[in-house]
Design a protein that fits this description.
This protein is an alpha/beta fold. The protein is built from 10 helices and 6 strands, in the order βαβαβαβαβαβααααα. It has 2 domains: 131 residues, 3-Layer(aba) Sandwich (Rossmann fold); 59 residues, Arc Repressor Mutant, subunit A. Strands 2-1-3-4-5-6 form a 6-stranded parallel β-sheet, with helices on both faces.
């Protein structure tokens, strides 16, 4: 039996998913919540196998809920339901350890399949989400290749985009601050920007962060 918990701040969505899943053999909906905080409280009370988690909830959002559950090593497996197909968001979910992500406009059969895959400990990211992610990675690779960036320059660029200081980058990469600044100057020259803000925008646009 797969025990499902639904976290979404739109009751119509909760009711819709519940109506889809109720009556299916081997699946039972044990509860629901309209906020991240309530989701965490309820998960402490119920035994849940798969959490169907909306991201855009008021207060504590879905990403914060997922992070908290992973930090606490909660055994529940997470399947995110979203309206937004954003590759940066998808990468963040993967880094957190979320097993699945599905567009809310997916069909009944795909939702059931995703639930079963995630329950079995397998990753399930919908085709639309996966295609957008790979397109983003491909564009990122082409952009960096076109600019003829070295592997080290790409590493520095990613850290600049993540708002690390020169000293922090030097410590992270085990290089001197002078070397970091040399890489920064080379990046500005190759990519045609005046400052680090431009580098950060380039990294974000091309899926490097």
């Amino acid at each position: 039996m797969i025990r499902i918990f639904i976290a979404d701040d739109h009751q119509i969505v909760v009711d819709g998913i519940r109506s889809i899943l109720e009556g299916l053999e081997g699946i039972v909906v044990v509860g629901g919540a309209a906020s991240g905080e309530e989701t965490l409280r309820q998960l402490a009370r119920f035994e849940v196998d798969v959490l169907l988690l909306d991201i855009n909830m008021a207060g504590m959002n879905g990403v914060q809920v997922a992070k908290r559950l992973k930090e606490e090593e909660h055994p529940v497996r997470i399947l995110v339901l979203t309206m937004h197909n954003n590759p940066q968001f998808t990468k963040q979910l993967i880094e957190i350890g979320v097993l699945g992500c599905l567009m809310k406009n997916s069909g009944k059969q795909e939702m059931i399949r995703a639930i079963k895959e995630v329950h079995a400990g397998q990753r399930y990211y919908g085709a639309e989400i996966t295609n957008t992610l790979f397109d983003s990675i491909d564009k990122s690779q082409k952009a960096t290749q076109k600019a003829e960036l070295t592997k080290r320059e790409i590493e520095v660029l990613k850290l600049i985009a993540n708002e690390l200081t020169t000293n922090e980058i030097a410590e992270e990469l085990f290089i001197s601050t002078h070397t970091v600044e040399t890489h920064r100057k080379n990046l500005l020259s190759k990519l045609g920007f005046k400052n680090s803000a431009g580098l950060a925008r380039f990294a974000a646009k091309n899926g490097l962060v």
